[in-house]
Design a protein that fits this description.
elongated, binds zinc ion
Amino acid sequence: MNEWKCSNCGYVVSAEAPPGDTCPSCHEKCSWLNVTCYIPDCAPEGVDKRL
Ligand SMILES: [Zn+2]
């Protein structure tokens, strides 16, 4: 699952793929930013950060 953020209003949705051209929150055309790795609990499991 990925986290997508509306470039227009900042609405964040969790989905495999971005919801489309139109944001369900602000109903504006927007581009979806993949913010999956910018959320605090995103740390990948089983990956040694020292490597
Ligand atoms: Zn929006």
